[in-house]
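The methods section describes the discrete structure representation at length, but only in general terms. Since the whole study asks how a given chain folds, the encoding of that fold should be made plain. An entry of this sort, consisting of the sequence and the corresponding backbone structure tokens, reads as follows:

. . .
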Amino acid sequence: MSKKRRDIPVFEQPIIETHCHLDYLKDRPLAETLAEAQRVNVERVITIAVAPDNLATVRELTGEADWVYGTQGIHPHEAETYTDAVEAEIRKHVGGEKMVAVGEIGLDYFYDNADRTVQRDVFRRQLQIACDTDRPVVIHSREADDDTIEILKEFESTLKRRGVIHSFTSGPGLARYALDQGWCLGFNGIATFNKAENVRDIIRMTPIEQLLLETDSPFLTPVPYRGRENAPFYIPFVAEKIAEVKDLPLEQVLTTTYANSLRTFFPG
């Protein structure tokens, strides 16, 4: 007989889910997922674009509820699909009322699904979109710390809104650079994994005022639900782990990360 998993906690303070992929969720109807997220007091959800073929999908998903928002951008895995037409589509729509950032963009040298030179070029082009449209950025960086830093340095004076390096698994060098430059770092279910002490070390060094909560669902389901498809309604477990790792009151983590999310994606 399997051990019963602990129920998902529900907190009075609402939570903003800053990074998920609603169009990738398969285990249940989307309406059910969103209803469950509301039940655990997830107030807003940001669903993230990654490829030319889901830019429009993300825009459509923001119509599912007035509290669902989106981004426009091309993931480094898809860098070789980036064209002038794709860039024009991003530029046309990223300023929309329900679009809150340029992303998910960046570099991934772990999988190397696209040529690294192409990745860097596409990263730069999309950072320029953020500069031109006054949007924050959602960055993916894996095994590419040095190049991520070098490219971000090129935009220090022109990229006004900054944003987040999401699902942060990089080293302390990139963390220190990003934090010094006013970026937030995003953390998810990886923080709960037994072998993720390197990530918890970064959480400890990250000021709570620069930390965002996310799930990256359907990936990286937190303990105690590993093995199931991840979803935005599991984000309370991430908040609990952040509070534990940083030895802070849970209420402080919830209220501060909520304010961080508003400042980053919903100013004013």
User: Anything to note?
Assistant: The mean pLDDT is 97.
